[in-house]
Give the backbone structure.
Amino acid sequence: MKLSARNQLKGQITQIVKGATTSHITIDVNGTIITSAITNEAVEELSLTVGKEAYAVIKASSVMVGVD
């Protein structure tokens, strides 16, 4: 599958925390941890499990930058 999003970061799922309707998926991308909130249904449809390789795909209309 091809996606228009250019920020596709490949990593390994390190944690899945299921809630009532939403799961928090933690992906380790070369030592950087990215967490995503997705539906429990999506977790099942994608057959996500700890240890499986997955992509964090980031598509945003804006990115904020801050400094001290």
The longest helix spans residues 40-45. The chain has a mean pLDDT of 92. DSSP finds one helix and four strands in the chain. The longest strand covers residues 7-18.
